[in-house]
Write a structure and sequence with these properties.
This protein has about 350 residues and is an alpha+beta fold. About 40% of the residues lie in helices and about 25% in strands.
């Protein structure tokens, strides 16, 4: 019985080994690729990596940075939205600057009011007071002179009727009254002359300086609103309400760097591709008017013809695609910009990497 069981187990093991050998020998059919790798459509071509960007007359997409620092109060647009030149995009909290501007505006208004007051002098009420003071001084002088004449006449008739001290006091009172009349008339002339020209000029300068300070404050207040400088489309918003932004941009917690607050591109009806040709291949580039190129979109079999736009005539380190400031090899590239032909079979977005082949 024991030998029989051993035989059965050995037979089953042999059958399993044969089945495993048969199964391992079966070859699975090779699956076709999801898409064909990018290949040159020309007999001889120059390859370059490219990046899709908004059509620009020069430069790249417009990165918008605020000129002032503060907390984002409100975002008025959304990504992908088309905007017009001058349209507000984002508001930064301006409460402190607004209060400062209002204070400077009030100071400028007060200076202007004081200037108008100086130019409006003499005031009728001040003239009436000055005239009344002259009349009062004249009356006082007349009283003092009458008293002096009476004392002098009595003294001449009988020196014992008026003391010498009383006569001297009458003389002094008349002299003081005469001097007071002269002062009253001078003050009347000064009032009628109005404000001194130098006081007016000084006030004009102060009012002008305060008005300029208020205008500068108002201009700075306008910087707390980010506006579109031209028609375009919002490509990216790199902040949220409550975030702190500065002229350096908005802090990105993922990259731990500063990004532009808003990236603005041209309308999606026209896109460019900026390709970077290695400097050792630059001598092989044909003339711009004869340059023929085609790009392949990664992950698809779509190929789109390109139309030459311009060459950016400055060879620079290849850091645009990797964003690395230091590399082991100093690879330098020449940017060449093409216009992308219309294609209804694929969606393209600024920032997308593509493969570009330029016919030699």
């Amino acid at each position: 019985m024991k030998n029989k069981m051993i035989f059965i187990i050995s037979f089953i093991g042999a059958l399993g080994g044969i089945a495993a050998a048969i199964l391992s020998g079966i070859t699975e059919p090779v699956l076709p690729p999801a898409y064909n790798p990018a290949a040159s459509p020309y007999p001889s071509a120059i390859y370059a990596e490219g990046i899709v960007e908004s059509a620009q007359t020069s430069g790249e997409n417009m990165n918008i940075y605020p000129e002032v620092a503060g907390t984002v109060k409100e975002i008025l647009v959304s990504e992908g939205q088309q905007v017009k030149a001058g349209q507000p995009l984002l508001l930064i909290d301006d409460s402190i600057q607004r209060a400062t501007s209002e204070q400077q505006g009030s100071s400028a208004e007060a200076a202007a009011a004081l200037l108008r007051e100086l130019k409006a002098e003499p005031r009728k009420e001040n003239l009436d007071v000055a005239d009344a003071q002259v009349v009062a001084a004249q009356a006082t002088l007349k009283t003092a002179q009458d008293t002096l004449q009476k004392d002098q006449a009595a003294y001449e008739i009988d020196p014992r009727s008026v003391s010498k001290d009383a006569l001297d006091s009458a003389l002094n009172a008349a002299a003081v009254a005469k001097a007071n009349l002269i002062v009253a008339k001078k003050q009347d002339d000064l009032t009628k002359a109005g404000a001194w020209i130098y006081d007016i000029q000084n006030q004009e300068r102060q009012q002008h300086a305060l008005a300029k300070a208020y205008a500068a404050s108002r201009a700075l207040l306008g910087k707390y609103t980010l506006r579109a400088s031209r028609d375009g489309i919002v490509l990216a918003i790199n902040t949220i309400v409550g975030n702190y932004v500065s002229p350096q941009g908005s802090y990105d917690a993922y990259t731990q760097g500063a990004d532009p607050v808003i990236t603005l591109g041209s309308l999606p009806s026209s896109l460019h591709v900026r390709c970077y040709v290695d400097e050792i291949l630059v001598p092989r580039l044909p003339l711009g008017s004869k340059m023929v190129a085609q790009m392949s979109i990664r992950g698809s079999d779509v190929k789109i013809p390109l139309e030459f736009v311009r060459v950016q005539p400055y060879v620079s380190p290849k850091i645009e695609l990797s964003n690395q400031r230091q590399e082991r090899v100093d690879v330098r590239v020449l940017p060449v910009i093409f216009k992308i032909g219309k294609s209804t079979n694929v969606n393209l977005y600024p920032g997308e990497l593509v493969d570009v082949y330029i016919s030699e």
